[in-house]
Amino acid sequence: MTSENNSAFKYNPEANYDEATMVQQREIEKTTEDQPLIGDLEDLAVLLKEFANDEVYVAKIKHLQKKYGHFRRTRGDGNCFYRAFGFAYMEQLLQDQEELDRFRSVVEKCKAEMISLGFPQFTIDDFHDVFMEVLDKVGSGCGVEGLLETFNDKGFSDYLVVYLRLLVSGHLQKEADFYANFVEGGRTVKEFCQQEVEPMGRESDHIHISTLTTTTGVPVRIEYMDRSTGGTAVTDSQQLSVNHHDFPDDSSPKICLIYRPGHYDILYI
Q1: What pairing do the DSSP bridges indicate for beta strands 243-247 and 255-260?
Q2: Which runs of consecutive H residues, i.e. helices, occur in the chain?
């Protein structure tokens, strides 16, 4: 799986992104442009074949199979966490009108907060309108195939990613006094957002995931699959397990993602 690329454009809150906001991302995707942004549902057994020569991964995939049966790939373009989160959650919203109504209210509130923080309204309105248009499609019963079509259409999909990034940036800046304790390198929270959150193609880690789940109220479980053995013999597949973390802590996750270094895909029980 292709790792996420850290080369990315820098989000300019004064710019009009109607025409040019995704130009740099297309450069990132040259090596992965043949891969769908969101793939079809696949059996986890497919991964066993792909990693047949990697004893650690084989053991850990077998551990995952005790709980999960399928997965969806996301393109390794640097935005896979946001795209995986957005698709997996909206897929559930297709069957949950009450949750959809709650989420719409949250998004409207976040928009107002971002504008109050000084985000330019013409930029926020543009991305917000597209995001709400897709939620309207979900509410009208577009179905999984319709949602796949939307998320594989760059005219919609990248706008959704940008807006999710803006939701994270807005929450971090709203709670800047708290999050300043977690920003390294002598940067302000705003500088961190401009460098590590808002630009397309920037890899997501703990702070991004924690912030998005908190601000949206959508708990997520991340299954971390790497080649570490923790001192366990590789041949002892009964003990070689995959560690997970729930965001927020002690929550009941609505969606599950699998993380391999530099990349997120969607998991299904």
Answers
A1: unpaired
A2: 17-20, 23-28, 45-50, 55-64, 80-93, 97-116, 121-139, 143-151, 154-174, 176-179, 189-192, 206-216
pTM, entire model: 0.86
* CATH, residue 232: 1.20.1300.20
- 201/192 Cα distance (integer angstroms): 15
In a domain, 79, yes or no: yes
Give first-to-last CA distance, the chain, whole Å.
Answer: 22
Cβ(37)–Cβ(20) under 8 Å?
A: no
Decide if 70 contacts 268 (C-beta within 8 A): yes
Please give the positions annotated as active site.
Answer: 77, 80, 263
- Determine the Cα–Cα distance for residues 170 and 118; give it in Å rounded to an integer: 10
Residue 13 lies inside a defined structural domain of this protein: no
CB burial class (10 A; 0-12, 13-18, 19+) of residue 215?
Answer: buried
Range of the domain at 57: 36-268
In contact, 187 and 70? CB cutoff 8 Å: no
Decide if 23 is inside a domain: no
Kindly report, residue by residue over 204-227, the tens digit of the pLDDT. 999 999 999 999 999 999 999 988
Is there a domain that residue 240 lies in? yes
pLDDT tens profile 130-164: 999 999 999 999 999 999 999 999 989 999 999 99
